[in-house]
Write a structure and sequence with these properties.
Strand content: 5-15%
Radius of gyration: 20 Å
Number of domains: 1
Structural class: alpha+beta
Largest sheet: 4 strands, antiparallel
């Protein structure tokens, strides 16, 4: 019988994931500060025929969901982000050996906390990336949103990979 790993060894894998999440948060905050200082609210800087830098503030959630309300959503989405972050860290500790799963959670964690910082500091999320085609616009977003989206995609891909591996491992039912 082998002895259980020391507590410090069990925490080591999650420390790496948390360091990556911190790097995402720092990069997200730096870019938001840069664009908040570079552009005036609503101003656009054309980069490509389908992409602009802009400066917009979102008091709501994704796609400006609940943005028109009188401020309660700031605290709701802040609390939701903090609860989700705590749950994500718990999941990462429980499944530290699952690298794809933890990477997906790390991206989501970094993005969620990046937006929580905005809500606490400014009362809104700073968005600056704008894709468009002709008169059709995708809602503006930021690096935190990008990390969350990439993390969600990676989470789905990791689950599909895991499910396929489980199916392959099951014996066939032929007699």
């Amino acid at each position: 019988m082998t002895a259980p790993a020391p507590a410090s060894a069990a925490r080591r894998p999650i420390a790496g994931w948390l360091a990556i999440a911190l790097a995402i948060i720092v990069l997200d905050q730096i870019t938001k500060i840069v664009f908040d200082n570079l552009l005036g609210y609503g101003e656009r800087l054309a980069i490509l025929p389908f992409f602009d830098f802009t400066l917009l503030y979102n008091r709501g959630a994704a796609f400006s969901f609940l943005a028109q309300h009188d401020g309660w959503q700031r605290w709701f989405f802040t609390g939701l982000g903090l609860l989700a972050s705590a749950f994500i860290v718990w999941l990462m500790r429980r499944h530290a050996e699952q690298r794809g799963f933890c990477m997906a959670l790390t991206l989501i964690l970094g993005g969620a906390l990046g937006n929580v910082i905005d809500r606490l500091a400014y009362g809104h999320v700073v968005d600056f990336l704008l894709f468009h085609w002709n008169e059709r616009y995708f809602p503006a977003f930021n690096l935190a949103d990008t990390a969350i989206t990439c993390g969600a995609i990676l989470l789905i891909l990791d689950e599909l990979r895991r499910a396929r591996a489980e199916r392959r491992a099951q014996p066939t039912g032929s007699d």
